[in-house]
From TrEMBL:
One of its GO terms (molecular function) is dTDP-glucose 4,6-dehydratase activity. The keyword ATP-binding does not apply. GO terms for biological process: nucleotide-sugar metabolic process. Its cofactor is NAD(+). It holds the Pfam family GDP_Man_Dehyd. The keyword DNA-binding does not apply. Residues 5-324 form the NAD(P)-binding domain. InterPro entries: dTDP_Gluc_deHydtase, NAD(P)-bd_dom, NAD(P)-bd_dom_sf. It catalyses: dTDP-alpha-D-glucose = dTDP-4-dehydro-6-deoxy-alpha-D-glucose + H2O. This is dTDP-glucose 4,6-dehydratase. It comes from Methylococcus geothermalis.
Length: 354
């Protein structure tokens, strides 16, 4: 049985990843999460009693704790999801972003380096440190072109700058110390268990309450969307077959303007809730002042992971969004529970984590 140290596994993508590992079986997961406002144990309810899942409350920035966990559990890999992730929050308060995403990743890398050096021959060769990152590090695109792994880093928000900093540290630990790292840079994710400050769950939640659906600017910013399960499968694929030191871009080939996304959600809600007093839901859309430094367009060229590791997304945007809207309708108790915590940043806008 393989053992993984997963960080940030009570959040959106990490939570989906952990649930997937437990459903597949054959893996032991040590789940280290600081349970910030976006981490929630409700997401992990299904695996609460699973003997192969151990939840540890703590920070990736606590090197002593991480070293203790590494020594105790002897993992075969570390998968780092832990981060501050919301662009709007990074504009209002960048400190936490630098603290967790840059310094936290540094502490985690130091602990990993200490542990890896003690491993013996075969385990030392097969150990991996997989760092989960974003396409936002590449900055913004004009109307054409796509981000490749060779695109220079040009982050524009404190969030993306802090993720870029973490990516650079991860890269340096390979080139300087030989630590077998892998980095994935992924486009916008959507799916179950996403905190309802991000575009898709925010819109669903507001629409159900008949509240305005705030769309930044003219709604013409373009994002490339990937269903979270496809992202989790990509991470598994890179972990199993990726070449140490390499970067893999992950994307869904689903470019959509924000207004298209919101209108599609409204149409799905009209279909699923024929008796809703808020029909047609698109009448709730309101355009609001744009976010400062708002990147115009992101698009990912995921050719490398396709060619080298035969990964392809399985969901289209239409099938994935249908599943997602259905999930939020069927899991109102989860939404209400996570909202009852520290939810309510002042700038609860329309943009996703990205
Ligand atoms: P999220 O905000 O839902 O979850 C983050 C998790 O990290 C939470 O459970 C939180 O409690 C935990 N955390 C925060 N600080 C921590 C610390 N110091 N120590 C341990 N745990 C800590 O985020 P997400 O959307 O699931 O994103 C996960 C990762 O994927 C992030 O690194 C993000 O940059 C990256 N990413 C996200 C997207 C997206 O669209 N959501 C796309 C590409 C990449």
């Amino acid at each position: 049985m393989k053992t993984l140290l997963v960080t940030g596994g009570a959040g959106f993508i990490g939570g989906n990843f952990v649930l997937r590992q437990m459903r597949q079986g054959g893996v032991e997961v040590v789940n280290l999460d600081a349970l910030t406002y976006s981490g929630n144990l409700r997401t992990l309810a299904e695996v609460e009693d699973n003997p192969n899942h151990d939840f540890v409350l703590g920070s990736i920035g606590d090197r002593e704790l991480v070293e203790y966990l590494l020594e105790r559990y002897q993992p075969d890999a570390i998968v780092n999801f832990a981060a501050e992730t919301h662009v709007d929050r990074s504009i209002d308060g960048p400190d936490a972003f630098v603290h967790t995403n840059v310094t936290g990743t540094f502490e985690l890398l130091e602990a990993a380096r200490w542990y890896w050096r003690q491993l013996d021959g075969e385990r030392r060769k097969t150990f991996r440190f997989l760092h989960v990152s974003t396409d936002e590090v590449y900055g913004t695109l004009g109307p054409t072109g796509k981000f490749t792994e060779e695109t220079p880093y040009r982050p524009n928000s404190p969030y993306s700058a802090s993720k870029a900093g973490s990516d650079h540290l991860v890269r340096a630990y390979f080139h300087t110390y030989g630590l077998p790292v892998l980095t994935t840079n992924c486009s916008n994710n959507y799916g179950p268990y996403q905190f309802p400050e991000k575009l898709i769950p925010l819109m669903i939640d507001h629409a159900l309450q008949g509240l305005p659906l705030p769309v930044y600017g003219a709604g013409t910013n373009v994002r490339d969307w990937l269903y979270v399960e496809d992202h989790c499968r990509a991470i598994e694929t890179v972990l199993a077959g990726g070449r140490p030191g390499e970067v893999y871009n992950v994307g869904g080939n689903n470019e959509k303007t924000n207004i298209e996304v919101v209108e599609t959600i409204c149409a799905l809600l009209d279909e699923f809730l024929p008796d809703s007093p808020h029909k047609p839901h698109r009448h709730l859309i309101q355009f609001v002042q744009d976010r400062p430094g708002h990147d115009l367009r992101y698009a990912i060229d995921a050719g490398k992971i396709g060619r080298e590791l035969a990964w392809q997304p399985e969901e289209t945007f239409e099938t994935g969004l249908r599943k997602t809207v259905r999930w939020y309708l069927d899991n109102r108790d989860w939404v209400e529970h996570v909202k009852s915590g520290n939810y309510g940043g002042e700038r609860l806008g329309v943009e996703s984590a990205k």
